[in-house]
């Protein structure tokens, strides 16, 4: 008797997706995600009833033994072990274990990027044997790269596990500020503008000769740093009477100082937060600093891998704030000490900020040179920038100008003190190249700004003093252990500072503000990310802060 053949029923998926329809799915299988097969499974094998563990091995390195070892290991189910079905059956089939993806994370995160490594080469960072026994001055692209020979690279087994440091912004961002632009440093580094030699407009102030005796100081013939009361001004752009006169004559459209422009030109190297106030008046732009802001102080080891820690304790002499005050104090006293008191003073015009009625201390040796730079791109365009640049002394002839800067060494055992660095008072004479390379790495932003300031001022030499604490635990007494001379343009080239890129940054920021209506704007460097942001602020945004500081305290 023949049996009737009946086709099985086919359940079509109404929504057209792959897999069974939700309407025909049995109740016990609902809300369960699809679990893919193991990558090692063959799609042609439906069932496998034999147990390889019960099969005899074929000897050392045999096929069956190899399968057994593989089956005992961990298998990847689906595309990732983090899948909800990524489990492994034990022999008793009673245990269930989730795969912890963190077990492999250390292998990826263990190679943390070295923050602040400005060199692109693979030279040995400071602290390795290669840096201590390097050849030459240690400058160039490979002198302080990210990865190096012995002693560099990993910088500690658990460096990747250190908590991320959170910095504070240099200015409090008000909620009523309107953000106009956000620019990443990666975009700033691609800008380029070629600027010709500037035009000298005026010179004001008084300078004296540099004392050449300080060039002979070394670790065996050190000299104490003296405390000298000299009046030195750090006036912002809008408060400069000479710039006000030049602006009234329509000499240029943009006005600033060399300290402000150098920060903009070296912005991609900066780590700490800073801010600039941009005042748009008519068709002119004034770039100012805030009084008491970051421009009034000098940073220490800003670009170091482990920078100085922040602290509210005033007794902590190795905190970032205390070190910044110490560095500013050292620079002011050192620049006054290296001036020859018996030299003839050169004064083309009086100091525009000095008032004999208000000041009792003598003036510091300083010459203000007002120079005009042409930032225009086409022949039909006129966009000039007037800068107030500063010069500290002259050497030999009066037209051979010099700027004076100072690097300071503190406790090497403290955080941010570069514990593997060479001590200046022992190795500065014999291994100066390694020490300079370490300073270029840890203070890349500061040194680049100093070099750019020297180029903008048109000086012939930059005198760099090496100042160390007489006692690592005493931040009041210091000694000069060495002085080195550099040509600013060569020093900038050795640090891979591109002046054309810097001018491109200045021109880009100026164009952004000049396209806006009249008013006040502020450019802020993000404290924790390589980003700058442009805000529109009220005209009295910072005047209110000044009034609050001047209010009397109620009894």
TrEMBL record:
UniProt keyword Protein biosynthesis present: yes
Keyword Protein biosynthesis: yes
Residue ranges with Gly residues bias: 118-155
Any Gene Ontology biological process: formation of cytoplasmic translation initiation complex
InterPro entries, per the entry: eIF3d
Compartment list: Cytoplasm
Subunit structure: Component of the eukaryotic translation initiation factor 3 (eIF-3) complex.
HAMAP family given in the database record: eIF3d
Entry remark concerning the domains of this protein: The RNA gate region regulates mRNA cap recognition to prevent promiscuous mRNA-binding before assembly of eif3d into the full eukaryotic translation initiation factor 3 (eIF-3) complex.
Function: mRNA cap-binding component of the eukaryotic translation initiation factor 3 (eIF-3) complex, which is involved in protein synthesis of a specialized repertoire of mRNAs and, together with other initiation factors, stimulates binding of mRNA and methionyl-tRNAi to the 40S ribosome. The eIF-3 complex specifically targets and initiates translation of a subset of mRNAs involved in cell proliferation. In the eIF-3 complex, eif3d specifically recognizes and binds the 7-methylguanosine cap of a subset of mRNAs.
Name of the protein in its database record: Eukaryotic translation initiation factor 3 subunit D
């Amino acid at each position: 008797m023949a049996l009737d053949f009946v086709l099985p029923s086919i359940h079509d998926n109404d929504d057209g997706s792959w897999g069974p329809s939700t309407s025909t799915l049995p109740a016990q299988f609902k809300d369960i995600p699809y679990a893919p097969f193991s990558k090692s499974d063959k799609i042609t094998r439906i069932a496998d009833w034999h147990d390889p563990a019960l099969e005899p091995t074929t000897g050392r390195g045999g096929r069956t033994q190899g399968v057994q070892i593989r089956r005992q290991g961990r298998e990847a189910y689906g595309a990732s072990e983090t899948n909800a079905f990524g489990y492994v059956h034990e022999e008793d089939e009673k245990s269930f274990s989730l795969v912890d993806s963190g077990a492999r994370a250390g292998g990826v995160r263990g190679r943390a990027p070295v923050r602040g490594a400005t060199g692109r080469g693979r030279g040995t960072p400071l602290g390795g044997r290669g840096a201590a026994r390097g050849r030459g001055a240690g400058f160039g692209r490979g002198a302080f790269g990210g990865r190096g020979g012995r002693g560099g690279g990993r910088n500690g087994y658990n460096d990747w596990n250190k908590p991320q440091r959170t910095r504070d912004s240099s200015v409090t961002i008000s909620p009523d500020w309107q953000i106009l632009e956000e620019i990443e440093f990666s975009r700033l580094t691609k800008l380029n503008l070629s600027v010709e030699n500037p035009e000298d407009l005026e010179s004001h102030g008084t300078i004296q000769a540099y004392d050449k005796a300080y060039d002979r100081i070394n670790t065996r013939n050190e000299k104490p740093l003296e405390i000298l009361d000299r009046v030195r001004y750090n006036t912002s752009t809008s408060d400069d009477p000479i710039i006000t006169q030049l602006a009234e004559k329509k000499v240029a459209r943009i006005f600033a100082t060399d300290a402000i422009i150098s920060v903009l030109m070296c912005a991609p190297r900066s780590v700490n937060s800073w801010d600039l106030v941009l005042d748009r008046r008519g068709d002119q732009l004034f770039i100012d600093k805030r009084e008491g802001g970051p421009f009034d102080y000098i940073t220490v080891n800003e670009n170091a891998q482990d920078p100085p820690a922040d602290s509210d304790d005033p007794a902590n002499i190795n905190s970032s704030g205390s070190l910044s005050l110490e560095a500013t104090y050292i620079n002011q006293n050192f620049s006054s000490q290296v001036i020859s008191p018996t030299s003839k003073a050169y004064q083309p015009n009086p100091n525009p900020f000095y008032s004999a009625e208000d000041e009792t201390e003598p003036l510091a040796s300083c010459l203000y040179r007002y120079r005009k730079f042409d930032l225009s791109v086409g022949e039909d365009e006129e966009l000039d920038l007037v800068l107030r640049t500063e010069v500290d002394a002259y050497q030999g002839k009066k037209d051979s100008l010099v700027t004076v800067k100072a690097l300071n060494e503190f406790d090497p055992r403290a955080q941010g003190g570069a514990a593997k660095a060479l001590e200046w008072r022992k190795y500065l004479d014999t291994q100066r190249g390694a020490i300079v390379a370490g300073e270029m790495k840890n203070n890349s932003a500061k040194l680049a700004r100093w070099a750019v300031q020297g180029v903008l001022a048109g000086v012939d030499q930059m005198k760099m003093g090496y100042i160390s604490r007489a006692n690592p635990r005493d931040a009041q007494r210091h000694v000069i252990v060495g002085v080195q001379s550099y040509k600013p343009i060569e020093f900038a080239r050795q640090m891979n500072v591109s002046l054309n890129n810097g001018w491109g940054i200045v021109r880009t920021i100026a164009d952004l503000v000049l396209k806006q209506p009249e008013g006040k704007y502020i450019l802020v460097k993000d404290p924790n990310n390589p980003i700058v942001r442009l805000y529109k602020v009220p005209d009295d945004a910072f005047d209110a802060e000044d009034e609050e500081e001047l209010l009397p305290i109620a009894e």
